[in-house]
Design a protein that fits this description.
The chain is mainly beta and about 650 residues long. The chain has a 15-stranded mixed sheet with strand order 19-22-25-27-29-31-33-35-39-40-45-46-47-42-43, with no helix packed on it. It has a nine-stranded parallel sheet with strand order 17-20-23-26-28-30-32-34-37, with no helix packed on it.
Length: about 650
């Protein structure tokens, strides 16, 4: 795949690699500058063909042979050899960089700068996938190096001539790609804007920065996500050669073979190294087969069930926050995320991905400190997700296909996106242990939802036409986070919770106003359904909209099963009141319709039952005890009403 870079900064950075001699013969410097200004499209085309024109990812190139030479003709610059193979086609113009500087040799986040770095660029013709090429040389000038077997198809540049490229027996080698080397002004504070694609260490990788200081240039740390991209366990490091099997295999299989120390031959002398087969300097061809098994983000699970083990992934790379992950086959091992698993510390003890698609197989989280962060969407459609007591954080949509796809255990799922997130199960309800809402835009239910504990950090949960059943309790609800019910009198979702002898707030509201209803029952715990919608209607759920000095909002409160009585408190904000209501907010009396039909409209509600005074000072509350009939509740300056469409309403009456 070609990658054409068109940014002006990149053009300026790589202009030194463009061969313009034949084009610019006879041009003066002033004419050349003018030509650069009036012909940017033509210049761009030339540069793109001579830049990093092939996207190479870690593991696309591998070291298959290394011969550290100690010749006597030039003791400090004896010609070392590094044989490499590319598992992808490299078009002409593709460049890779080779260095014996160590990563975090002395300082965290920096490369060493006391050794050399050489760029080799493929020219004239493409390099075929599987074709072995050998970089030979030591020194700090381009003429000190050659690439075999076809040296005329390679161009060599020294990126930092301050120090020599010269391998030692305890050294490291890094194959880099896609960036520019900046030596820096301080010792061992070099930077590279690209990334490594393969590595080699004679002594093993340092566990933390600073092992190379002072006075030594070895002991590199392992670069992030490179655990699978270096030969493992080779005992003789200075003369080792991969004995390639005469097989056809995909990139993933070849890397597995290269990582196996049993497939390497080691020698003690250069003649013995070159007399062993294959002789890579003469040219050699691996048979590379394309396969879906090398796809980025695909769980293969043929090594063990550790999510953090690169050997289990299709391209040998543990996913990051920008990687789409999918489990699309029943593998030998399902995936386990455990924060104390081997290699987990390399990823901050956190499993990350962008979109996660569980089409087959399972993901299991072990341990309450284990964490899965999903920066995109989750879809469970044939696979299974079991978090036990761990934590899942998701920034996109949650989609299940059956309630059996997700076994919540005692886990917490946090919705922490930046745009509104959807929660859907196609054959619902979706069942959670604990949900935490941390999204200013909120989350929306697209199917019924059951949860033991609901926590609001900030942002709302929109119920739409689906019921939300909370079996335990709701935490943190308030004006910045509550349940928004659909603003219509019928066919709307309800918040379903238990109320007992202690008052329980049902945190409901419209999109703009938080208006909870608090319920308690004198004797036993009972389950209630509560929602809210705009305006007060003549028959509660239907009929004409009633005006006057009112709070134009209705609370629909119904028990799931028969209830003898309940105590109810309603809350509203001053901004919701009509002007007449705010001017006449005084003592309220409860009245009941006598049902004799003697009056019409508001005049029908005039039988005094109970007096109550609104409490607080924005938000306001009004309370009544021993309610025995339920339906739609509302508040008026003339009367604080309880309406029920199929029976006579009850009212609060305000003087």
């Amino acid at each position: 795949m070609f990658r054409y870079r068109v940014r002006p900064a990149f053009i300026l950075l790589h202009i030194k690699y463009v061969r313009l001699t034949s084009i610019l013969i006879g041009f003066s410097s002033s004419i050349f500058c003018l030509w650069l200004r009036i012909m940017p499209v033509f210049l761009l085309a030339i540069i793109s063909q001579n830049s990093f024109s092939q996207t190479v990812i870690p593991g696309d190139i591998a070291i298959v042979g290394l011969n550290v030479e100690h010749g006597t003709t030039h003791p400090f610059h004896a010609p070392d050899e590094i044989s490499l193979v590319s598992f992808v086609h490299l078009p002409k113009g593709t460049a890779i960089d080779i260095t014996d500087n160590g990563w975090e040799q002395s300082h965290a986040g920096y490369w060493g700068n006391r050794e050399g770095i050489i760029r080799i660029r493929r020219i004239n013709q493409n390099l075929t996938a599987g074709e072995v090429f050998t970089f030979r040389g030591s020194g700090n000038k381009p003429e000190d190096f050659v690439v075999l077997p076809d040296s005329t198809n390679w161009e060599i540049e020294v990126l930092d001539s301050t120090h020599c490229f010269n391998l030692m027996e305890d050294d490291q080698v890094w194959i880099l790609y896609g960036g520019e080397w900046t030596r820096g002004q301080q010792t061992d504070k070099a930077t590279y804007s690209g990334y490594p694609v393969y590595g080699w260490s004679a002594t093993g990788w340092a566990g933390d920065p600073g092992h190379g200081s002072p006075g030594t240039t070895s002991h590199s740390a392992l670069y992030d996500q490179m655990e699978c991209f270096y030969p493992h366990g080779i005992t003789v490091h200075h003369k080792a050669k991969f004995i390639a099997p005469n097989n056809t295999a995909d990139r993933r299989t070849w890397i597995n073979w290269i990582n196996n120390p049993a497939n390497w031959d080691t020698k003690n002398t250069t003649p013995a190294y070159h007399n062993s087969t294959p002789e890579y300097t003469d040219g050699y061809q691996f048979n590379i087969q394309a396969s879906n098994a090398s796809i980025n983000g695909q769980w293969i699970g043929d090594h063990n069930n550790n999510w953090f083990d690169c050997n289990n992934w299709g391209d040998h790379m543990v996913p990051g926050k920008n990687t789409d992950v999918f489990l699309d086959q029943n593998t030998q091992h399902y995936a386990v995320i455990e924060h104390e698993a081997p290699y987990a510390h390399l990823y901050g003890d956190t499993a990350r991905c962008r979109n996660l698609n569980l089409l087959q197989d399972s993901i299991v989280l072990q341990g309450e400190s284990s964490l899965l962060e999903i920066t995109g969407n989750l879809e469970i459609n044939g696979g299974h997700l079991t978090p036990h007591d761990a934590h899942i954080m998701i920034q996109g949509n949650w989609t299940g296909h059956t309630p059996l796809d997700f076994t919540p255990g005692s886990s917490t799922v946090t919705f922490n996106g930046s745009s509104r997130q959807r929660i859907l199960n196609h054959s619902g309800p979706e069942i959670f242990h604990k949900i935490s809402i941390r999204n200013d835009s909120g989350a929306v239910m697209k199917s019924p939802l059951q949860v033991d504990t609901l926590e609001f950090s900030f942002g709302h949960l929109f119920l739409e036409q689906y019921d939300l059943v909370v079996s335990s309790h709701i935490l943190g609800a308030g004006p910045s986070g509550y349940c928004v019910t659909l603003d219509q009198p019928v066919d709307a979702g309800q918040l379903v919770m238990h109320a007992g002898t202690s008052p329980i707030a049902f945190p409901v509201g419209t999109s703009n106003y938080y208006s909870p209803a608090t319920i308690s029952t004198p004797d036993t715990t009972k389950e209630f359904k509560v929602r809210i919608f705009s305006n007060i209607r003549e028959n509660g759920y239907s009929g004409s909209i009633l005006g006057g000095n009112i709070v134009p909002i209705s609370w629909a409160i119904e028990p799931v099963n028969p209830v003898d009585s309940a105590h109810i408190t309603l809350q509203w904000e001053a901004a919701m009141e009509t002007m007449g209501f705010s001017q006449n907010r005084v003592l309220g009396d409860m009245i009941q319709n006598p049902g004799d039909g003697a009056r019409n409209g508001w005049e029908d509600w005039n039988f005094l039952i109970h007096s109550s005074e609104p409490q607080g000072s924005d938000p306001y509350k009004i309370h009544t005890m021993n309610v025995t009939r339920f339906g739609v509740f509302g508040v008026s300056a003339d009367r604080c009403i309880i309406l029920k469409p199929d029976t006579s309403p009850i009212y609060y009456y305000a003087q």
